[in-house]
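Minutes, project huddle
Topic: does the predicted pose make sense with flavin-adenine dinucleotide bound?
PN asked that the exact inputs be recorded in the minutes so nobody has to dig through chat later. Recorded below.
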Amino acid sequence: MDLALTPDLRDFRESARTWLEENVPREPRPPLGPDARDFDLAWQRRQFDGGWAGISWPVEYGGRGLTLLQQMIWFEEMAWAGGPYIGFCFVGINQAGPTLIARASEELKNFHLPRILRGETVWCQGFSEPGAGSDLVSLSLRGEVDGDHLVVNGQKIWTSFAQYADYQELLVRTGRGE
Ligand SMILES: Cc1cc2nc3c(=O)[nH]c(=O)nc-3n(C[C@H](O)[C@H](O)[C@H](O)COP(=O)(O)OP(=O)(O)OC[C@H]3O[C@@H](n4cnc5c(N)ncnc54)[C@H](O)[C@@H]3O)c2cc1C
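Predicted holo structure (tokens), as shared on screen:
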């Protein structure tokens, strides 16, 4: 396998490096709390305004639609530039957004995806339960559709950043599991 960068990829690296040099926040990320939330969302917004948000998301959903190699170069350059950790935007950008792209209705995509990319909403992850950790097949929390509502019965634990989040990607059991 030839891992040498093509001229196009070298140009891409140069443009990523130039933008990061000029835009990576110089002030330290505040300790975990509301100020860190504001800091992370502002950094996400700055990347959005610069055209660097959602680099692996399809173009039709506001991303850059970049290749795996371009993503790797972007993350390398981010690390070399001392860019801040994705922090509060982790679940929205890396999990909830791509899941919505794959499975959601157009209405939900149109509502949520721009807000995630622009750094306007924080998502948390509701996977673990008292009786289910790595073994997600053991999930027992139930979700029943009742008109416009999803009625949820059961327990979740380990929900990092729940107190700061606007939305949660919540795993619920809807079938009988037979
Ligand atoms: C700091 C922190 C933050 C977290 N934040 C979140 C969050 O935001 N949202 C959320 O949903 N969860 C969160 N979690 C929970 C995390 O996802 C769970 O800890 C994880 O799912 C493991 O579950 P468990 O601790 O019950 O361990 P278990 O699932 O009981 O696993 C214990 C050990 O058994 C092994 N094991 C499990 N199943 C098998 C198997 N079938 N075969 C062989 N080995 C196996 C595991 O590898 C592990 O070594 C967080 C955890 C931590 C520590």
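Observations noted during the meeting:
- Residues 7-23 form the longest helix (17 residues).
- DSSP finds five helices and four strands in the chain.
No decisions taken; revisit at the next huddle.
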